[in-house]
Every structure is written in structure tokens, then in C-alpha cells.
Amino acid sequence: MNSPDKNPSQLAGHTAHPTTESAVASAAARELIGLVTHEDVDRARDRWEVARARVKGRSKTFGGFRLLWLLVGPGILVFLGENDAPSMLSYSADGSRYGVGFFIPFVVLTFIMGFIVQEMTVRLGAVTHRGHAELIFDRFGKFWGFFSMGDLIFGNFLTLVTEFIGVRAGLGFFGVRPAIAVGGALVIVVAAITTGRYWTWERITLSLAIFNGLFIPAAILARPDWHAVGHAMLTWMPFPGGNRYEILLLILATIGATVTPWMLFFQQSAVVDKGMQPRDINAGRFDTLLGALLASVFAIAAILATVPLFHHGINAADFQAAQFAEALEPLIGHTGAALFALGIFEAGIVAAIAISTSSAYAFGEVMQTGHSLNRPLREAWPFYLTLFGSACAAAALVLIPRFPLEFVVLTVNVIAVLAMPPALAFLLLLVNDPEVMGEHVNGFWANVAGVTVTILLIIAGLGFGLATVFPKWLGG
Amino acid sequence: MDPHFADVPENPGALASQDVSVDVKSEQLSLRDPRAVLSLLEADQVVAAKRRTHFGRKNLSTGTKALLWGLRIYVVAMLVIVFISAYQAVHAAR
User: Fold this and answer.
1) pLDDT of amino acid A13
2) Shortest CA distance to B80 belongs to which of A262, A468, A473, A161?
3) B94 touches chain A (CB under 8 A)
4) Set of chain B residues whose Cβ sits within 8 Å of the Cβ of A464
5) Dihedral sign computed on CA atoms, order A454, A455, A460, A462
């Protein structure tokens, strides 16, 4: 790598408001023509829109909304992307096996945990203009970098497989053949990335992601007991009874449905690709909060939609996506069941786009090749090949007869939780690094919150491990 | 690495002249002048600048190394447990 290893913050000190004398600059301008890339031009165009909205926002009562509209995206996408097929299945398992109770406020808690860690990635991306993988390699070296990447790529690939399982199962409810469902999903993934523009990709994916809200009408059709929901939110009761090992596994899967390593890598890279700057951090926080809020409402809706299965004593222990929808049909009607199945399909599609993009960003950052959705295919073909190749490989596995799909579904969320503490350790070290973050370094309470989340995840993982090795410990 | 980035100035953002500024009140934007592009981006946001500069390696304290190793061992041990239990669960279901 042709790198003088200079600290980029020294460049940032010069700021985007150049100070070089114009005589020097006019000579240098010729040099710049071959220097500015397609990616820079697209990003500058986005920044121009933001700067205009900022100026107009000051003079208009609702001008601030235009600015927020331009700056939201990565936060909503990451949380709605994480409301993916296995996550919605975990929430459905919570509702169908334990009804309204502990898991409803617990889901809200997991999204608070998610917000705490994702907010740090917004700051990291906006301040450094570097992706998460790149920063880990720069600051901790290749040894730790490859460990971190190994966790990410392995976890991402397993999760991608489950997204295509969700796509296949969701459309299976409507009688669509697996090959057509999976092939159609791949076409959508490709269509999203062929725009050659981050902004367009983001808006297409956001418009797909909002259909995660299909779980809301499905929940309403299930006629939830709102009094019980309010009681559960306030008291965290009733606490689930029965097999404590299964409860622990479900708790772990529910956490894994909200906080996972790919989210850290994806949001930071998306913030960089969007061109966000330190002055956009508050908008980035709002975006992340809005994403967490929407995703938690949709997750609770998935729980409520499947509560009728609990009331009718239907054993959903080994249910997959299509089986949930089929079992719900006589209880909440065909429309409700169809909405549920469509919701699982949507969850799979959006997550497939986001997760394959996360893998491609990380690959590009580590290999030091172009890694931006603002780049045309010819300039960043390894980036797009990684994105499309990982999606294709995952889709192909889903179509292999007798492939142990249930094995993957069982393990994916649990693996996400187990891989999270090292990812959080790197995140906390980076966000506390004054050479990297400058004045945006973590504050005391952000550290307390971040360390608490990490310790909670470690305790949950250790509890699962001990209960597996010593089943009698939990009366199993 | 893209070959056309091999000889770039260390701080391309600083090469744009001060008199090139983009009028954000205007309805039209022309980004044909690279200086206009650079004036809209932070200096370390320009692709060429990012290629030239990197954060150096951080010196890890013994405590930090111990923490990272501890977490690494934790992940490997837990993954083994997950795979064994999931394998058993799948076979029991069959």
C-alpha cells in the first residue's frame, strides 16, 4: 500500500475550507481534474443538497424537515434490516410460546441496547470518514483485523442464508416455487445496486424496508389484549414458565435479533458512503433513534400477531416462517396470515440487501479497493462482485435439497450474540481513542452504557454455554 | 489499489482555491470544476486523500491485549458449544 501512514485528522485540521493561495491553487487545479473521482462528485452533490437544506432550513418554519429527510437513512435501514427473517421468527416464537408478557418490554430493552451501540458508529463514521473494518485494521493491525473480519463474514453468510430461507418461506405461503422466489429476490438485490448511486440505493431500500410495518395490521387482526400489553410493559410480567433452557435460548435469540456485528460495520460504512460530516451527528442520532423506534414497534407487532397461537395451545416450538403463517390463518384470517407471510418475505429481502452490502463494504475496506455504492461497476467490480457473489452463494444453499436449513436458523441469532462482545470491545476502544475521535470521543455515560451492554451480552452468552454443558443447572 | 491514485497530493482538499465556493442558494449545481467538488467535501473525505493517509497502529496495553484474547477465546469456546448443541437438536428432531 502506498501509504505514508499519516494521521487523517491532520488533514481534517485543514478542513474543507481550503486555505492555499490562489496562485498555487490554479496550477494545482489542473492536477485535480484527474484526481476527483466519480465517487467524490456524487458525494459532493449530496453534500450540496444538505448545505442548501441547511441554509433554507434557517429561513423556513419546516425547513428542518428537508434536512432530516436528506440525512436519515443508515439508522433506519440498519434497524429495519435487522428486523430480518430470523429475527421476526424469534419474535414470533416469543409470542406464540409465551404470549403477552416479559418479552414485550424485553424487546424494547434490546432496541435501547442497539441504539446505544449504533450511535457510536454514527460518530465514528462521520468523524473519520472511514468504515469500521478499515479502522480496526488501521488501529489494531492485521492480526486482530482478520479475527474481526472472520466473525463478520462467517456471521453475515449464515444470516444471509436465513434471509433467503425467509424469502422462500414467505412466498411459499402464496404457492410460489422456491427457485422462483429466491431468483426473484436476487433480481431485487441486483436492481438495488445497479443504480451506481448511494442515494438512490438508500431510497430504494428504505422504500422496501418500510413494508416491515406489515406486521402492524397483522397484529391488529390478531385482536391483541391492549390492557395485557400495557401491564406487561410496566411490570415485565408474566415471566415465561416451563423449560428454562428453552427460555434462555429464546432470550439469547431475541437479543441476537437486535444487536449484531453486521449492524456496526454496515451503519458506519453507510454513514461514510452517505458523506455525513461531524455537523450531521445529531441528525444521525435522530435517524438511529427513529430506526430503533420503528423496528421495536414492528417487532412487538410480530409478537402480538402470533399470540393467538399461544392462546389456542398450538405448539410452535419447531415452526418455520411459512408454518407460522399457515397456523395463523384459521385464527386471524387469510388477510392477516398473508400479511404475516409478506412481512417475512420483505424482512428477508431488505436484510439480504443490507447484509450483502455490509460484507462488500468490509471486503473493500480491507482489500483497499473501491467500496462505495457511488462508484460505477467498472471502477469497483470487486465490491459489487462480493455483494452479488455472497447473495448468490447464500441463495444457492437454500435451494440445495436436504441442506440442514433448520441448523442454520437455530444457530444464526445465537452466533450473532456470541460474536458481539469482541466487536463491541473494538468499537469502544475506537470511540474512546482521542487520535481517532478528537472532540467526539465517548463521554462517561456513553461508556457506562456501552460497557453495560457488553457485559450483559457476555453474561447471556455464558449463561447459554453453562446451561448447554451443564443442563441440570437449569433443571433441564 | 487503483493505479490512478498513485501520485496524489497529500491533501487534495487544500489544493482547491479559496475563491471557488459553491453557491448553496442557487438552484443549479455544476461540479465540472474539481475545486467545486472539493469545496463541498471535508479534506479527509476525498477518496484520494483517504488512500494517502491512514490512522497509524495503536499501541495496545497488556490489559487491552488480555481483554481481546479473553474475548477471542470466549467466542471460539462458545461457538463450539453452539454447534454441538444445534447439531444435537437437529438430529434429535429427525
Assistant:
1) 42
2) A468
3) no
4) 78, 81
5) positive
Locate A444 and state its grid cell.
462517561
In whole angstroms, give the CA distance from residue A258 to residue A256: 5
Rounded to the nearest 10 degrees, the angle between the axes of helix A281-311 and helix A85-98 is 40
- Asked whether the beta carbons of A335 and A355 are under 8 A apart, the reply is no
Give residue-wise pLDDT tens across range A335-369.
999 999 999 999 999 999 999 999 999 999 999 88
Residue numbers in chain A where pLDDT is lower than 50 = 1-6, 11-25
Query: Which chain A residues are within 8 Å of B28, Cβ to Cβ?
Result: none
Q: What is the pTM of this model?
A: 0.88
For A4, which DSSP code? -
Are A322 and A63 contacting, i.e. CB atoms less than 8 angstroms apart? no
What is the Cα–Cα distance from B27 to A65, expressed in whole angstroms?
Answer: 19
Residues 6+ apart with CB under 8 A from A214: A339, A340, A342, A343, A346
The class (CATH top level) of A35-56+63-417 is mainly alpha
Every domain of chain A and the residues it spans: 35-56+63-417
ipTM: 0.81
The DSSP output letter for A297 is H
What is the DSSP code (8-state) at residue A280? G
In the chain, the amino acid numbered A321 is A
Residue A207 cell numbers, joined: 422504500
CB contact under 8 A, B56 and A41: no
